[in-house]
Amino acid sequence: MEQIKVNSPKLFVCTAIENKDEIEERYEKAYINFQSLVADCSEKEAHDALNNAVCKNHEDISLGMLMSILTEPQNSTKCYRDLTLITRDGFTCVLNNLSNLILERYLKFQDTTRNQLLWLVKEMIRNSVSGVDSVCWNLMRYASGGDITPKNIFLVESLLDIYIDNKSWLDKYPVLICMVVYTYLRLIEDHNVPHLMTLRLKEVNFVISLIREHFDEILSLGRDLVRLLQNVARIPEFNQLWQDILLNPKTLSPTFTNVLQLLQTRTSRRYLQSRLTPDMERKLVFLTSQVRFGHHKKYQEWFQRQYLATPESQSLRSDMIRFIVGVIHPTNELLCSDIIPRWAVIGWLLTTCTSNVAASNAKLALFYDWLFYDPEKDNIMNIEPAILVMHHSMRSHPAVTATLLDFLCRIIPNFYPSFSDKVRQGIFNSLQQIIEKRVLPNLQPLFDSPKLDRELRTTVRDTFKEFCSNGEGVSGLREEGIEDLPRGGPDEPAFSDDEDETTPIIAEDTDDDDLPLSEVRARERPELAAALPSALRPFAETLLDERTAAAATALLNACTPPMPTPIALADLFAAVLQDLPPLKISANPTPSELDLTLSSPIFSMFELLLANSNDSKRKLILETFKEIHAQNSVPSVGFSLLLYLKICYEKDRRAERDPAKKRNVKFKMDIYKTYCSNLELKIVECLVNDFEKCQECDSNILVWLISDVYREFKDQVQNHIKLLHIIVSTIDAGQLQRLVCLTLQGNLMMFKTDDFTTMLTTSLNWETFEQYCLWQLLTAHEISVEDVLPIIPKLSYREHAEALTSVLLMLKQEKPTQEVVRQMFCRTVDDEDTFVVSTVMYWCQDYEEKVADLLAVLLSTRYPGTSPNKRKRPGKHTIPPNAPPSAESVLGHLEQIRICCVDQDDMSIFKTECLQKALQHSQSNSNDNLKRQYMQLFSLAWEDELPMLRRARKMASNSMPLSQNLHSSNEDSEEEEIVKPKQAKRRKKAISDSD
C-alpha cells in the first residue's frame, strides 16, 4: 500500500540557513502520523482509528493533534473536540509539552501559532482543564516589560482579555492571581504613551479589582509589591489604593496592619524571575556562570543590542538587577573562580543607563533588600552585590560609587519618613552582616575614600558614624596606616546632585573591565598589607607575589608584638589561597609528590600549630582559622589540616626502622580536635563539613584519609550516615576496591552494631551506585544476617532493588532459621515481588525438610486460638509478639511458592507431613474468604491419600494440639533445631561492637 504523504505546516519561523531542530522534527513526525490515521476517513472511522492508536502511543497522537490545533485554524475546533474525547490523562501530556514548547520556542512561533496558542488556552480555561494555569504562568513571562512593540502588546492585551472574561476561573488560583497583579503592575509603568492609554485603563481597573478582592493573597508578594506600586502611585486609582494602604489598612484586609508588614516580607524568587523572559534569563545565567572576567565585553554588547537598545527598555534594568540580586546566588566555588561576578554585571547595567528615572529605579532595585533587612529572615546574598559594586567601582568608576553612597544616605529619611528609623536599622543590619560575614574586610576605605567629594564624605561619616568613627575600622580596632592615606584636596572629583553632570576623571585610574579578575583582586593588595603592622608588610607583599609555604613561614615567624589581628591575617591568607589551584594527589602518592603538596602556604600555618612553640602565636593561628571559617572564603582549611597530619604520620612511619616502634607512631589527632574546639563545633560536624569540601576538591585525598579518620575518630564516625553518604557518593569502582581491601586487611572498620537499622533505612534513598558501594563495604565487614533482618519487611522490590538484591545474596549464604523466615513472610505479598519465593526455593535445594518444618510452624502459629502451646526455650530467635506476619500474609507467600513449584513440576515440599498438617489446620481455622482465595493451596493437603497409619494417627489426635504431631518421634531434637538453629561457622566479624 502506498504511504500517504502529508505536507506538515510550520510551527516556527525558520531562516534559510537554519536546520530543523529536534523539537520541530518530533512535532512534524507526530503530525504526519496523526494525519495518516484520519485522512479520507469518516468521522466515526477517524475516531475509532484515533482511539485504537492512542492506546499504543498516547503521547505521539496527542502531539500530532496539538500541532494541528496550533497550525490549522480551520480544523482546530474539530481537532480540539477529538483530543478531548481520546485523551487518557486529562490533558496532562498536552499541557506539559505545551509548557515546554512555550519556554523553549515561543519567540520562534509563527503568527498563526501564537494566535492559536491563545485560542487553545481560552478553550481549556472555558472547559476548566486542570493544569492550564501553569501554561498561563509560562506564557505571561513573555509579556515583557520595557517592550511596546506590536507583538508584545498583542500578547499583553490578549492575556488580559482572557483573565477578564474568565474572572471566576482566575479566582480559584491564588498564586496565578499574584503573578497577574505583579506582571501588570510592572507593565502599566511602560504603557504611558497615547496610543496605549485604552489598554492602560483596562489594566489599571483590572489590577485594582484583583488587589482589593484578593488582598490577603496579594500580601504574599512582599516588599516588591510596594516597589511596583510606587512606580504607578500618580495614577488616580492607585493613589486611592495607597491612601487605603497607609491610612485605612483594615478596609483592605482584617489581617493587614500597615505597609511595614509588606516591606518586611521578602518577595519570592519566582516573581523576580517572572519579569525576565526565559531567553533573557538563560543569557544572564550564562553570563554569570560561564563567562570569564575580562572576556565579557562582547557578551554584554550583544545583550545590550538584543534587549536594551530602545528607550523603552531602560525600565528593564530594574527587573534585571532584582533578578541578579534575588535569584542568581553563586556557589562558593563560583565566587572564588574567575567567572564574571554579579557586581560587575550590575555595575555595567548602572553605567550604561541613560535615563534619570530608570537610574533611580535601578539603584532602588539594588538596595531594596537593605532597607528592611533582617538577618534572621533575609539572605546576605541579596545585599552582597551592592556593597561590592561600590567597593570595586571606587578605583575605576568612582562616580558610580559616589552616586550609590549618596543614594544610600538620602534614602534613609526620604523612603518613607514615618519609618525612617526602620530603614536606618535595616541598612545598619545590612552593613553589620557584611562585616560579620567578611564580604569586605573593612568599610573604612569605602566610606572615607579621598576620591569622594568632601561634602559627600562628611555626609557618609555622619550617617554611618558607627562604622567609621575616629578613624577606627568596623572591627573596632584602629586601622594602622589610615592616617597616612592621602586626603582629598582641591583637585579631587566634585560630587554633584545632578547625576548627568560629568565627573572629572582621575589620571591614575584605569578601567578594570578588560582585566582578568585575578588582577582586579591583586589591585587590592595595598589594603591587605596596610591592615598588618608595618614590620610585616614586606613579608605580606612577598607572600602575595610568591604564594609559597616558604614565604608564609617567613611572615609567620616575623609575627612578634604588636601582633597582627586575626582578621587581617585571615584576609591576607584568603587572598593568597583563593587563586591557587586546588589540592590534588594521585591514588598512591609518592613521598616526593607529598612534599610538593606541602608547598601551599596553608601548610605553614599547620606547621606552626604542630610545633607548639609559642602560645601567643598558636592562639593567633587558631583565631585566624576561626575568621577564615566565619567568612567561608577558604573552604579547604579543615581537610587540608587532616591531609597535613596524614602526611606527617606517614613521614614518621617511614623514618622509623624498627617495626615495633613504627606501630607506635601516633596520628596527631589532638591538633584537629583543638581546631574543631576553637571553631566551637563538634568533631563529627567538622569532619562532615571537611569531607564535603574534600569531595568537591579531590576524591583521592578523601579516600587516602578515610582509614585514618575511621581509626582515630571511630566513636564519632562509625555508622555516621551523612559522612558515609559523602564517601559512597564520591568514590569510583577502583577506590571502592581499595576500601574493601583495607577492610579485609583489618585496617578499616566503618560500622558498628548501634543504630544499624537506622543507617540502612536511610541509605534506601541513595543513588544506585551509592547503595552498591555501601553493600560492598558491608559485605567486606561481614555483617551478620541478624543486623539486616529488621529492614527486610520494609524493602520495596520496585524502589529498593539494590538493597533487596544485596540481602537476597546474603541470605543465599545462610541456612534457613525461624527468625529469618518470619521476617521474610512479613513482607507485603505482591505477584511481581519474587524475593521470598526465590529465597525459599534456593534453600529447598539443600534444606527442604527444614524449610518445610519452619513454614509449618510459622503457618500453624498464625491461629492463636488453637496454636500449639510449645515448650518455650530461651534464645535469640524467639518470635517477638509485636510483629508477626498475618495468616493471610503467610498464605499469600505460600501461594506464590506453590505456583513456582507447579512451574518447576516439583511439589515435594508440600508433600512433607508437617506442611500437610499445617495446611489442614490452617484451612479448618480460616474464614470462608480465605478458603476461597487459597482454594488451590489448601487442596494440596488432600491431593495424595495419606497412609492408613498416618490417617489413623491424625484422627486419634484431633483433640491434641497440632504441633505435637508436626514432627517425627525425634521431636525434642528437631524442635530445638527449629527454634534455635545452629549457625554456620563464620570468621570473626570485622564490625565494631556497640559496647
From TrEMBL:
Chief place of localization: cytoplasm
Segments forming domain Ints3-like C-terminal: 592-941
UniProt cross-references to InterPro entries, sorted A to Z: HEAT_Ints3_C, INTS3, INTS3_N
Domain Integrator complex subunit 3 N-terminal: start-end pairs: 56-461
Subcellular location: Cytoplasm; Nucleus
Cross-referenced Pfam families: HEAT_Ints3_C (PF24566), Ints3_N (PF10189)
UniProt biased composition (Basic and acidic residues): 477-490
Compositional bias annotation for Polar residues: 957-968
Keywords for the protein's UniProt record, in alphabetical order: Cytoplasm, Nucleus
An example Gene Ontology CC term for this record: cytoplasm
Region called Disordered, residue ranges: 472-512, 866-888, 957-995
Top-level taxon of origin: Eukaryota
Signal peptide: none
Biased composition (Acidic residues): 494-512
PANTHER family according to UniProt: INTEGRATOR COMPLEX SUBUNIT 3
Function summary: Component of the integrator complex, a multiprotein complex that terminates RNA polymerase II (Pol II) transcription in the promoter-proximal region of genes. The integrator complex provides a quality checkpoint during transcription elongation by driving premature transcription termination of transcripts that are unfavorably configured for transcriptional elongation: the complex terminates transcription by (1) catalyzing dephosphorylation of the C-terminal domain (CTD) of Pol II subunit Polr2A/Rbp1 and Spt5, and (2) degrading the exiting nascent RNA transcript via endonuclease activity.
Family under the similarity heading: Belongs to the Integrator subunit 3 family.
Protein name, entry field: SOSS complex subunit A homolog
